[in-house]
Predict the structure.
Amino acid sequence: QHPTIAKHQPRETASGINSLFDGQVPGSGPAPDRGTPLDAISGRTYVLTMRWDGPGHGQGLMRHPAPADTHPGEHRHTIADVDGSEIERAALVALLRRSARGWSEIAVDAQEAGGALALLRRAVSGTGALFPDEPGEAAALNAAAADLAAWRADGLDVHTCFDQGYPQQLRDIREMPPLLFTRGVRRPDHQAVAVVGSRAASERGRTIARTIATELVERDITVVSGLAAGIDTAVHEATLAAGGRTVAVIGTGLRRHYPPDNAELQARIAEVGLVISQFWPDAPRPSSTFPCATPS
């Protein structure tokens, strides 16, 4: 009935859970130079062809002007015209979309294969294939590129286990999430405390939770919880009321809300704090995902 507390004191290095919020998402601009985010490329359309340079070589991706039947100004999001890290990001999304295996297993397999692109080529072409299935690979990458562009257009940031700023603590756990989705204000949280508890909390339990959250805010400590009913809701609301920073780690996609009554609260947290999910943005809340979303 009462809240429980777990304190996280990050390391003094760039690694750690808080380093996820140190990096900046690459800025967008009008010129579609190599490295420009896909959602910043407009007014020009490209198609993708590929050459085989061996596993893990993103430079095998070539861009060419679109066919003559492409309408002027039409915007097709493809993996062309982006840097190697974005190609790896798209390849990981493509792998997770097509595979029935567990996400954590795919993350480990991709690391052992030397990258998501190398593993995708094997998955598309089949183990031991003499030549890669270039059209199949290009289609998978372009579909993933469209997903990434749509998520970013919706205000979501996407972080993969291959990104330099991925939390080191998560790399060390057995079921490492290959993707993290965030919405809100990213910044280093050098001191953070997670306060979670029962969804069927007593009024006394909620009062204790509010008191703890308020005192943490007074000490300039970020308050983390799971946006569930009961204790979690009391913690987030008290933190916001006290003018503090709160982070919600949720068990649905970022475009969903659970419980539904917390939709407005989730939006308020995203405006001044941060909401994090390891699930596809449109994923509902199966009962099996609730425990693994609890902050720890």
Observations:
- The radius of gyration is 21 Å.
- The helical segments are 84-98, 103-113, 116-125, 134-153, 168-171, 203-218, 231-241, 263-272.
- Confidence is low (pLDDT under 50) at residues 2-76.
- The longest helix spans residues 134-153.
